[in-house]
Specification:
The complex is a heterodimer of chains A (97) and B (388).
Chain A lengths: L15 E3 L3 E6 L2 E6 L4 E5 L2 H9 L6 H7 L7 H13 L3 E3 L3
Antiparallel strand pairs in A: 1-5, 2-3, 3-4
Chain B lengths: L2 H6 L7 E5 L25 H14 L3 E5 L9 H10 L3 E6 L6 H8 L4 E6 L5 H8 L3 H14 L6 E6 L7 H10 L3 E6 L6 H8 L3 H14 L31 E4 L4 E3 L10 E4 L5 H8 L1 H6 L14 H4 L4 H6 L15 H6 L33 H4 L3 H4 L1
Parallel strand pairs in B: 1-2, 1-7, 2-3, 3-4, 4-5, 5-6
Antiparallel strand pairs in B: 7-8, 8-9
Chain lengths: 97, 388
């Protein structure tokens, strides 16, 4: 599998992981993220999204990570957008399986 | 609840923590917000600093902004930087460049966890040195050359915008481009020695407007530490959170371990506690009376009726305080001009003075002690009253 950054819509059916240079700090509203490589701070605006991001590394696909975190099919489009933004900023990376 | 609302009510740990390691400095910048110069004998020891870093790690403070004084003059500075990064606390330190040798630059270039910010307050030697002292421009430029030569991409050049350099923004950007650095612009505050020069140095209303327009065009590639949120009153928000983070997402730990609401508010009024106290830093951050108060909904006072209030939120607390304005009044640099009107009513000399001053003594200190005759006999000898 390519390690090139995905172009176009976020691929829910491939494997992803959190960049190892990113630290997650849980907060009431979700979590704060800090990327030590780009030195950018970002936010995860719901605890469910935090659960999805944490589950990425142990699931074969992003879709499976969403399912594990309890995301319903009707919510998937919203999560796909959020994950696309995280991929665009290099917070999460494609992973070889 | 919006993210900004969440931040108003405070977080379990600060996002942006400034830690001033020492009041010692080789320079005497006229606008120094911490009135630095001489080391304070009560400064935290190496062991105390490491214990504080351990606490930051437990609280998941992602990184600390280390400043001073000039932090690199502390003999244990590099030891503390290494200790912090080994404990997952990133370090961004501000320096005038005095210790950034080619060798140090090479070391710094090798770490993802260390960022460097070189202070420069003029794009020309003349403008810079008038504020930061003779030779400081060359020192800063030499440090930038060393960092660039070592391959340190994206270090920061930190500029306090003044009346004298406000017209040099493009020239600053050119310097940043030349060294592969990123420009950071911050606001001049009337804090520390800055209070003494604020009247002559703070940008004019016209310059503020030009700065705002420049930031709207260039803001995405320039850092501001959110310091110009009072300019949001012009209409459009600038990139950033656009709120006063004091005690909510920001705080300052000073060299002796005192915790203040923000780096620009070194005054007893904004002192929340000390890291040497029971419960350490976490206790001060989470429980102190002052921070709890700051996280409660604030009154906008006279500003609430202004149509710009939602954008500027009344501006900077420290700027108001040290110019003698009420905390629920307008910012002294209010873009609608309410600050100027309010300043006209402040009695000269009535603004609060900083609680601390570690400035170099530029005048010789008198060594002879003159004796005034005692007013009453017991002023001279506490036992005098009972001795007769």
């Amino acid at each position: 599998m390519s390690t090139e950054r995905a172009a176009g819509p976020f691929d829910l059916d491939s494997a992803w992981l959190l960049d190892e240079r990113v630290a997650i700090r849980p907060e009431r509203f979700g979590a704060l993220l800090y990327h030590f490589g780009t030195r950018r701070l970002s936010f995860l605006k719901s605890p469910e999204l935090v659960a999805v991001v944490r589950a990425l590394v142990e699931q074969p696909t992003a879709r499976a990570a969403c399912a594990q975190a309890g995301v319903s099919p009707s919510e998937m489009p919203r999560y796909q957008v959020a994950l696309a933004a995280l991929a665009a900023s290099g917070t999460i990376l494609p992973r070889s399986v | 609840m919006s993210l900004v609302d969440e931040f108003q009510y405070g977080l379990d740990a600060p996002i942006c923590l400034t830690w001033e390691l020492t009041y010692a400095c080789n320079l005497s910048c006229v606008h120094c917000l911490s009135s630095s110069g001489r080391r304070d004998p009560r400064e935290l020891s190496t062991a105390e600093c490491k214990a504080l870093i351990d606490e930051f790690e437990r609280m998941q403070v992602f990184y600390v902004n280390i400043g001073g004084g000039e932090p690199t003059v502390r003999p244990d500075f590099w030891e503390l930087v290494d200790y912090a990064t080994a404990h997952h606390v990133g370090v961004k330190f501000s320096t005038n460049g005095i210790k950034i040798t080619p060798e140090v630059a090479r070391r710094l270039a090798g770490s993802d966890y260390v960022d460097v910010q070189i202070s420069l307050d003029g794009a020309t030697e003349e403008v810079n040195d008038a504020v930061r002292g003779r030779g400081s421009y060359r020192t800063a430029i030499a440090a930038m050359e060393h960092l660039a030569a070592a391959g340190f991409a994206g270090f920061k050049i930190s500029v306090v915008v003044t009346r004298q350099n406000a017209g040099q923004l493009d020239a600053f950007q050119a310097i940043a481009d030349r060294y592969g650095a990123q420009l950071r612009l911050t606001r001049l505050r009337p804090s520390g020695r800055g209070a003494d020069v604020w009247d002559e140095l703070h940008p004019t209303a016209g310059q503020q407007r030009a700065l705002y327009d420049w930031l709207l065009v260039n803001g995405e590639r320039v850092l501001t530490g959110d310091s110009f949120f009072h300019l949001a009153g012009y209409g459009e928000s600038l990139p950033g959170l656009n709120l006063c983070g004091a005690g909510r997402v920001v705080c300052l730990v000073d060299p002796v371990g005192d915790v203040y609401a923000c780096p620009f508010a070194i005054h007893d009024t904004f002192l929340a506690g000390n890291v040497r106290g029971d419960g350490g830093f976490a206790h001060v951050w989470r429980e102190s009376e002052l921070f709890t108060e700051l996280r409660a909904p604030q009154s906008g006072g006279a500003c609430t009726s202004c149509s710009a209030y939602d954008a500027c939120r009344g501006g900077c607390m420290a700027a108001k305080f040290f110019t003698g304005l009420p905390l629920d009044g307008p910012d002294p640099e209010c873009v609608r001009g309410h600050g100027e009107t309010a300043l006209a009513t402040v009695l000269s000399g009535s603004a609060p003075k900083p609680s601390l001053d570690h400035s170099h003594r530029t005048k010789p200190v008198p060594v002879s002690i003159t004796r005034r005759p005692p007013q009453r006999i017991c002023d001279e000898n506490p036992l005098a009253a009972t001795a007769h």
